[in-house]
Design brief:
Blueprint lengths: L1 H62 L2 H10 L23 H9 L2 H9 L1
Length: 119
């Protein structure tokens, strides 16, 4: 009978050890699955940030061009080059120009329009 008690005790002990091992294995599996999920999310964020980075690099190249800088100086700071005259029209003044003149003006290059203005 003492052998049966020992084998019963060992069986229960082995069963508990097996349950602990199974619980530990399952816990590790779920932690690993969560880690893979975080890695996938990080990859998605990385792709988005790389896209933003490329867009910002293109924007930086754009704003470093002389044409962009000159446009900001002229349009937002209301400055002009030496010897130029700035003409400011109020809203609606362009519609007062006759259609024939407006068509001629729109077909001309910008420098031609300025030349006509000073004639």
């Amino acid at each position: 009978m003492s052998r049966l008690k020992k084998s019963g005790f060992l069986g229960k002990l082995m069963f508990l050890v097996g349950l602990l091992l199974l619980w530990s294995l399952m816990k590790g599996f779920f932690e690993l699955r969560g880690a893979y999920k975080r890695v996938d999310e990080a990859k998605e964020v990385l792709e988005i940030e790389e896209t933003k980075h490329e867009e910002l690099k293109e924007k930086l190249e754009e704003v470093q061009k002389d044409e962009y800088i000159e446009g900001i100086i002229r349009n937002e700071l209301n400055m002009q080059k030496e010897g130029e005259t700035v003409v400011v029209l109020q809203d609606g003044e362009l519609s007062k120009i006759p259609d024939q003149v407006r068509d001629d003006v729109e077909k001309k290059e910008n420098w031609e329009k300025w030349l006509d203005l000073w004639r």
